[in-house]
Amino acid sequence: MKFKSRWMVGLVVLPLALTGCTATSNTAATTDAAASGEKVTIAVVTHGSPGDTFWDVVKSGAEQAGTDLGATVTYQGDGDPVKQSQLIDAAIATKPDGLIVSMANPDGVKNAVERAVSAGIPVITINSGLEQSKEFGAQTHIGQSEFIAGQGAGEQLADADVSNVICVIHEAGNTGLEERCNGAADTLGGTVSNVQVDVANVADAQNTIKSKLLADPSIDGVLTLNPGIAVAASQAIEEATSTAVLATFDVSSDVTQLILDDKILFAVDQQPYSQGYLPVTFLTLQARNGDVVGGGLPVYSGPGFVTKDNADQVAKFAKNGTR
User: Fold this and answer.
1) pLDDT over threshold 50, residue 215
2) Which of 120, 122, 182, 192 is most buried, judged by most C-beta within 10 A?
3) Per the domain annotation, does 85 fall within a domain?
4) What average pLDDT does range 128-134 have in this prediction?
5) Residue 153 is assigned to a structural domain of this protein
């Protein structure tokens, strides 16, 4: 599979991000304690529940950055925006040196994020909520443009002569997932129909996908947005004796193996480990050295594409829990 040149412009080289400009201002949360050498504390509050394979990788990245930099990192997650907002408020009360937040439901956590900013706590958003990040007062966003990533997936599927795709959304109300499907529809040159499933019930998701394939044999492509759902879709395709091409977003050891087995065409990789590691690094630098990274613009961790050409290499890291 070839990379499209326009996807490459989004890739960011960390040294450039760290040294490209001099910050013009610092927030009140660049504390005297941090300046005097005491340990920096970073709070991470995401919409990913504990035990989710994707968010476990994000958590690992954040915690490893804390270990490498000598910073204390706390991590909590809840997919309910009301509960996530409560976790954000609880984090604000501890007066951390920085706050990292994902925003799958931006409107649902808006007030809590703005309260953190008003309290003088530097905020970096990750993964979801790129479009609202600056508006809510975050310094930068680390992740990928979900629409652009979806466009890349649509192009890859079009190159494989796929024209009738079901795009499987596994979290209701997650705007980023909807943007992935919208992006794929923008470039496929065919039909993309959204199918709603529940990531908490993989068996039911598998049956839903199987039923769609059996009901419409013209479906020649399945695009999933989660590794666990990708595995379920692979089984559904097999049970339905369908020839539909399967592609997915996000990487796991199961996904890389299915790519190597020619059961998944490609995976769009947003590199969740970086989404955990980089913001902890940025906020620790800010607390210790006054560096403010991003300039109000996003730092792209993706999209990249894992295909059979590079799946072996990625699989080595996936087994370590870092991809």
Assistant:
1) yes
2) 122
3) yes
4) 93
5) yes
Adjacency order of strands within the sheet including 267-269: 191-196, 164-169, 221-224, 245-249, 267-269, 304-306
Domain containing 252 equals 146-269
Question: 3-50, pLDDT tens digit by residue?
Answer: 444 443 343 434 333 334 433 344 444 444 444 456 899 999 999 877
List the structure tokens of 210. 């199987």
Backbone φ and ψ of 143, nearest 5°: 165, -145
Both 215 and 67 in one domain: the answer is: no
CA 109 from chain centre, in angstroms, equals: 17
**Do residues 130 and 276 both lie within one domain?**
yes
**Digit-coded pLDDT (tens) for 167-201:** 999 988 888 899 999 999 999 999 999 999 998 89
Query: What size, in residues, is the chain?
Result: 323
Domain total for the chain?
Answer: 2
Residues 134 and 279 in one domain: yes
Q: Which of 141, 114, 117 is nearest to 130 (CA)?
A: 141
Beta carbons within 10 angstroms of residue 294's beta carbon:
22
pTM (predicted TM-score) = 0.78
